Amino acid sequence: MLSQHARTGASSLRSARAAPGPRAAPRPARVAPRAVATGADSATYEQLEAISCDLSAFPACSFFRVEAIIRPWRTPYVIRALSEAGIRGMTARDVRGVGMQGGSRERYGGTEYAMTDLVDKAALDIVVARDQVDLVVRTVAIAALTGEIGDGKIFIHPVAEVVRVRTGETGAIAERMAGGRTDMISGNASD
């Protein structure tokens, strides 16, 4: 038989849980990528932090699209890291595919995912100026890293031109890459 105190405590917990009120959507914990990626060692991080992309095959190209295929549950970490690095424009989509993983089921929080040979992934597309490519690739790679097979891939595609539909502006003006990060920090960005 429970004591009066134990019964009262349990019922007050139940009523506190059932209390109506607005609830904010749960946000991912703010954790540094190194703390989350338990399977990776410091040599891997050093290698990722030293990434320098060879863009010499496209000397006249001013813009590049960085396409990152990553684990879906790493997406909030990658987006936050890009935002903190001053990268503000990207497109995210859900994709399915198979690579080195060979369609192995992915595990997160003790639960297996994927009912077919195709594994759910997230794709992020970020169009940046030539001088921002290395920053974006490093940021995505470090934030997406878990140290296990299936962490993903990053592809870099040349972009011939950028056009803002609303104004017809083209090039660096259309993408606000002339000042990019500087404009964002100083508050001069209008779009």
TrEMBL record:
Keywords of this entry: Phosphoprotein
Any one Gene Ontology BP term: regulation of nitrogen utilization
SMART domains named among the record's database cross-references: P-II
One cellular component (GO) term of this entry: cytosol
Region (Disordered): 1-35
InterPro entries the UniProt entry points to: N-reg_PII, N-reg_PII-like_a/b, N-reg_PII/ATP_PRibTrfase_C, N-reg_PII_CS
Positions of modified residues (O-UMP-tyrosine): 113
Name of this chain's protein: Nitrogen regulatory protein P-II
